[in-house]
Amino acid sequence: MLNENAVADFKANLRGRLIEPGDKDYDEARKVYNAMIHKKPRLIARCADVADVIKAARTVTVGGGCTWGDVDHATHAFGMATPSGIISTTGVGGLTLGGGVGHLTRKCGLSVDNLLSADVVLANGTFVKASADENSDLFWALRGGGGNFGVVTAFTFKLHPIDMIYGGPMLYELSETAEVMKWYRELISAAPDDLNGFFAFLTVPPAPPFPEHLHMKKMCGIVWAYVGPQEKAEETFKPIRAFKKPALDFVGPLPQPALQSMFDALYPPGFQWYWRADFVNELSDDAIAQHIRFGEALPTMHSTMHMYPIDGAASRVGRTDTAWNYRDAKWAQVMVGVDPDPANKEKIVSWTKSYYDAVHPYSAGGAYVNFLMGDEGEERVKKTYGGNYDRLVEIKKKYDPDNFFRVNQNIKPSAK
Ligand SMILES: Cc1cc2nc3c(=O)[nH]c(=O)nc-3n(C[C@H](O)[C@H](O)[C@H](O)COP(=O)(O)OP(=O)(O)OC[C@H]3O[C@@H](n4cnc5c(N)ncnc54)[C@H](O)[C@@H]3O)c2cc1C
Q1: pLDDT digits (tens, 9 = 90+) for 357-377
Q2: DSSP secondary structure letter of residue 17
Q3: Which residue, among 199, 163, 160, has the nearest Cα to 180 in the 3D structure?
Q4: pLDDT value at position 416?
Q5: In angstroms, what is the span from residue 87 Cα to ligand 1's centroid?
Q6: Which atom of ligand 1 is nearest to the CA of 368?
Q7: Residues 7, 1 contacting (CB under 8 angstroms)
Q8: I need a labelling partner for 6 at 20 to 30 A (CA). Which of 29, 148, 213, 412 fits?
Q9: Highest mean pLDDT among 27-36, 265-274, 288-297
Q10: Across all residues in the chain, what is the average pLDDT?
Q11: Confidence of residue 1 (pLDDT cuts 50, 70, 90)
Q12: Are 109 and 313 in contact (CB under 8 A)?
């Protein structure tokens, strides 16, 4: 998985020696105290000082109950990050096991693409490790199969040297939606992996830092995250800003955890949420016309629609390499009716369902499992896993034959 440039770069920045397979002292260097253990690491770093240890230790091990805010806090101190979502209060467990889509998807892949190992308590109470080398079938299933296979007590992720990001929301008038969406679909498809941007419909919150003249206004926009060389950021955004002057441009340099937690305050725990979702291959003009109808009719201030790009690095992982099946889809789209007041339940449910009915015909079929509501039936879950479903059933039979873990997007051990 390591490319030669990355190895050369690592070597050049290490004060100690880097030993690789083929080097004359490789076999000696890979020995550990216990002669029963025969690991064959791709690289062995003889760290000379603390800076070398930091450079070499590009992993983070996270307790199963952590939120992404906990992870960002710990890794940002070292100028590192691993891909998560777009809100820092979301749990590492659920988001990762379903896939994990967010600001870093195009650059670093899904959260599951960065998972190196997991500690798991199985339904029968046994404790196992899952990685490419140990219980590799379970490791495969955990990467997208949700909470179906056990309780993960620790996750180990690969880290990336992502410290500052040039990002934030850029908002446009709702009347400009067609133009914005058509421009966005072309721009993001051709963009380098360093640039992520998800499309959204939203209502501007009636509070600072938003200017008063925009308060409670329905708008469309793109939330950008550029993780390339920061000195090139302004240049990268020149054509974006040249497309059309946004009504609000909050895009600029900020620390990675600041972007991750930017929307936390808007979505405190305890609201009513009703979800519908699809994977999308193509954003056609007809689909855009439907989006406009429902974007104009956002039922409450917190209701929204997001289209997350899942191309770039996420699309270069094979369809059967992990349980996540839709590697060739371009977007994970979600429409979600949200409101603090249970009295508005019908209003948000009916908008979400009607919106979904209108755009689903333009979709790729399945949906990101973490955006499924749970009231759509088994067929929808099957569709989401596509050709990977049968293998998931076999692994479920092996690790949870009695379907102990069933309060989820369930993969039944008996399903055909
Ligand atoms: C405000 C908000 C923002 C979101 N943003 C994003 C986003 O940007 N990107 C994205 O990909 N998704 C996003 N989601 C969807 C999110 O991935 C799912 O809601 C996910 O289930 C949340 O996981 P959790 O651990 O927080 O929730 P929980 O309710 O704690 O867990 C959900 C389920 O996951 C499983 N699970 C959780 N932890 C473990 C564990 N340690 N071991 C085994 N199973 C476990 C269980 O089946 C559990 O029932 C968002 C959701 C919300 C509400």
Answers
A1: 999 999 999 999 999 988 898
A2: E
A3: 199
A4: 57
A5: 11
A6: 11
A7: no
A8: 29
A9: 288-297
A10: 95
A11: low
A12: yes
CA distance 365 to 290: 17
Cβ count near 309 (within 10 Å): 25
Q: What is the CA radius of gyration of the chain?
A: 22
- H or E element, residue 364: none
**Whole-prediction pTM value?**
0.90
Residues with CB under 6 A from ligand 1: 64, 85-87, 90-91, 93-95, 97-98, 100-102, 146-147, 151-152, 267, 273, 370, 407-408
Take residue 236 and report the two structure tokens written for it.
């990268």
Tell whether the torsion through CA atoms of 19, 22, 27 and 31 is positive or negative.
positive
| Number of the ligand 1 atom closest to the C-alpha atom of 153 | 41
One-letter amino acid of 311: D
pLDDT at 279 over 90: yes
| Residue bearing tokens 């993960």 | 152
- Residue 148 host element (H or E): none
Measure the CA–CA gap between 95 and 109, rounded to whole angstroms. Answer: 14
| pLDDT surpasses 90 at 13 | no
DSSP letter for 314, please.
G
> Which residue, chain included where needed, has tokens 């990467």?
143
Give 36-84 pLDDT, tens digit per residue: 778 899 999 988 877 777 766 889 999 999 999 999 999 999 999 999 9
Which of 365, 363, 377, 361 lies closest to 409 in space, CA to CA?
A: 377
Q: Is residue 387 packed enough to be buried (19+ CB in 10 Å), middle (13-18) or exposed (0-12)?
A: exposed
